[in-house]
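Internal ticket - ligand job 470, glutamic acid:
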Amino acid sequence: MSVRVRFAPSPTGKIHVGNGRTSLANVLFAKAQQGTFVVRFEDTDLEREIEGAEERILNDLEWLGMVPAESPVHGGDFGPYRTRERAERGDYEEALKKLDAKGLIYECFVSKEELDMMRKIQTSQGLPPRYDNRHRNLSDAEKEKYRAEGRKPVIRFKMDEDAVIEFDDMVRGKVRFEARNLGGDPIMIRDNGIPLFTFAGVVDDINQQMTHVIRGEDHVNNTALQVLIFKALDAELPAFAHMPMLLDTDGGKLSKRLDSLSVSHLKAEGYLPQAIVSYMASLGFGDAPVIGSIEEVAKQFDFGRMGRAAVRFDIEQMNRVNAQFLHQMSYAEVKDMLADFLPENHDEDRAGHSRMEAFWNAVRENIVTLKDVQEHYEVCFGDMPAVTLEDEDKTYIATAETKLPAGPYTKETWGEWVNLLKVETGRKGKGLFMPLRLALTGQQHGPELANLLPVLGEEHLRQRLKQASQ
Ligand code: GLU
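stdout (C-alpha cells):
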C-alpha cells in the first residue's frame, strides 16, 4: 500500500517552527517513501478560528517547499479536506452509528459546573482529575428530564477501563497505556454538534486511507485514546511517530515565542526557506544540517535515528545554517528573494547599469540573513558618510586617486592598484589598507575591497577618494 500522510492543522493560527517541523516530518517521510502528503484542515474550534488562516498556512507551506498533493485548494480523491464539510456529508454520523450499534457511545448531560466540581474534589483528594463516567447508564426518563431543563448532551465514547493499549511508535518504540489513566470516557461530539478532532481525525484517517500518523509528542495521550476508537471502528491502525517537543533557544516553552518564530516573521527577517527546512529537519538527530534541497534533506531523514529528548530551536544555529546557504548561492538563485530587501529601483542603479551580480558576490560572505544586505547596499550605493582622516592619510588617499587604474574593473584591479601604491608610498599592511577602506566605504570592516571595486565603479571610486582626501 502506498504511503499516505497528513498534516492536520486547525485554521486558528500560522505556521511557525513548531508546527512547521511537524509538517516537514510528514513531507520528508512522504518524499522518502514516494508517498502522498495531504493537508487537511481540522476546523472544529469555531471560537478560535481565524479568517484567512487556511490560505496563510498553505502559502507558508508552499514557500517552504512543502506543497501538498491533496488539500482544499489542491483537490484530490479523498476530499473534502475540511472537518466541517466532512461532517455535513455525514462521515461522523456514520461512524457514530457503527459505535452505537456496539453500545459504545452515550449521551452525557453533565454540566460544566458539575465537571469543575468533580475535578476540584478529585484534586483535593490528591487524585488526577477525570470525568467519572457518571452518565454512562442514564435511563430514558433521566435523559428526558435533562432535556426538559434545556441541557444539551455531548456524546461520549464508552472506554473499556480495563483495556491496555499498546502501539509501536517509529520514534519511541513500544508505547503502553492503561485506559483507566486516560481521564474517563472522552467526548466525541460537543453539545453544538461539532466533533472533537480526536474523534474526527480517526474517522478521516480511516476514510482518507492514511498509513502513518506523524505528529508531536503532545499528542501521545490522544493516540492512546484514538487507538481504541480505530479498533472500535474495526479499522487497521496506521503507524505512529511522535516527535519530541521543540523548545525555545533557552529551553523554555516555544508557545511564548510563536510570533517571532513564525515562518512569515523569519521570511521578513531574511531567512531562506531551504535553510529553515534544513535546520528544522536536523533537530533531534545530532547531525549537521544538510546544505541542499529538500529532496536531499529527505534522504537523510529517518525516524529510527531520531532522539527522544526534547530539542531546542537555537537561533544561532539557524543563523549559521542560513549563512551557509547564502554563501553558496548565485545571484540568479537569490535575485527574486533579494529584491524584497532592496529599494524598488535597485537593479538600475548607476545610470541604468546593473552591478547587482557583482554586489551580491562581494557581500554574500558577509551576511547572515538577506536583510543584512541593506547595510551593504547603503555603503555601496547610498551617500558616503563623511570620513575624517589624519593629514598623512589624506595625502596618501590623494596619491591613491592618481594611481587608480582606469575602469572597467575586474577582480584583478585591486591587486594592480595596491602594488602601485606599495611601490609609490612604501606603505604596507594596515597602513596601506585601512585608509583605503575608510575612504571607500566609511567603515572599518566589510566585504573584501577587491570585490567592491567592480561594484563601485571608476567614477564613484574617484569621487569617494577625492572627498576623503580633502
Ligand atoms: N488538529 C490537530 C492539531 O492541530 C491535529 C492532530 C493530528 O495530527 O492528528 O493538533
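Auto-summary: The chain has 21 helices and eleven strands. The first helix runs from residue 17 to 32.
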